[in-house]
Automatic annotation (TrEMBL):
Major location (coarse): membrane
Protein name according to UniProt: Disulfide bond formation protein B
Pfam families per record: DsbB
Keyword terms: Cell inner membrane, Cell membrane, Chaperone, Disulfide bond, Electron transport, Membrane, Oxidoreductase, Redox-active center, Transmembrane, Transmembrane helix, Transport
Membrane topology: Multi-pass membrane protein
Origin species: Acinetobacter ursingii ANC 3649
A molecular-function term among this protein's GO annotations: electron transfer activity
Location in the cell: Cell inner membrane; Cell membrane
Record-linked PANTHER family: DISULFIDE BOND FORMATION PROTEIN B
Length: 173
């Protein structure tokens, strides 16, 4: 069963990360949609998950502990993207009078403030993140991102908690 193979699943996660980032870059560079700060943070989690899945794919550890360690790191990474995407969707559902005011751009924040303050500023939301610039089947990009990231999170959680076959030891006769 190929779908139960640890390496195969990590390969799929790497591929999903590449496809997700390719689509994000297509929207940014071809369609001209500038990513808001929350979009950038969602990308960070997706890329981190892809990197951990790639390392797990290449390493292909025999130890169940190492398999779970890679799965935990990938789960935490994509869990970050799920949380940020959920926050983004929430911001987009707020009535216009309750949307936070637009602050300075992400580049300025990173240049001028400590990282902890930047994270706090971005995650508390910004008016530019509430704008809906793109839809598909009546849903905004953050909604589709949340769906995509949630599926990846479920796969990572399955990798983390599933039962792995016990490695067979070679016995000398």
């Amino acid at each position: 069963m190929q779908w139960r193979n640890y390496r195969f699943i990590n390969g799929l996660l790497v591929l999903a990360s590449i496809v997700g980032m390719s689509f994000a870059l297509y929207l940014e560079h071809v369609k001209g949609l500038d990513p808001c700060p929350l979009c950038v943070f969602q990308r960070v989690g997706l890329m981190a998950m892809g990197i951990f899945a790639l390392i797990a794919f290449l390493h292909n550890p025999a130890s169940n502990l190492m398999k779970r360690m890679y799965a935990l790191l990938a789960t935490l990474s994509i869990g970050w993207s799920v949380g940020v995407a959920a926050r983004h969707v929430w911001l987009q559902t707020l009535p216009p009078d309750q949307v936070p005011s637009c602050g300075p751009g992400l580049n300025y924040l990173i240049d001028a403030l400590p990282l902890k303050t930047v994270l706090n500023e971005v995650l508390t939301g910004s008016g530019e993140c509430a704008a809906i610039d793109w839809t598909f089947l009546g849903q905004s990009l953050p909604v589709w991102s949340l769906v995509f990231f949630s599926v990846l999170l479920l796969i990572c959680l399955w990798q983390l908690f599933r039962t792995y076959p016990v490695a067979k030891k070679a016995y000398k006769k």
